[in-house]
Amino acid sequence: MGADESAEKRRAAAALRYVAGEQxxxxxxxxxxxxxxxxxxxxxxxxxxPVYENAELAAxxxxxDVGSEIPEELYLAVAEVLAFVFALExxxxxxxxxxxx
Length: 101
Known about the structure:
Blueprint: H1 3-9, E1 12-17, E2 27-33, H2 35-46, H3 55-61, H4 75-92
Antiparallel strand pairs: 1-2
């Protein structure tokens, strides 16, 4: 296994920011592999930020520049992340959220 293949297998993580009504699409605010990914995950947990695990999506997000909006081809996958976060926030606020419309 070459160095490039080894790097590709390391854990990836990305942090997104989205403010409905202010942004057209979520933006990548932090991303990395290996040690950086572990630091991002640790910081999220320390600050009570929800962590959504999807290795394929994380791998796609770390290829984007920090500060860039996600491309249209990732909208559906990121919509699943936003739905996950919304459901967690709703439960924390005592509201009932149905998984299906």
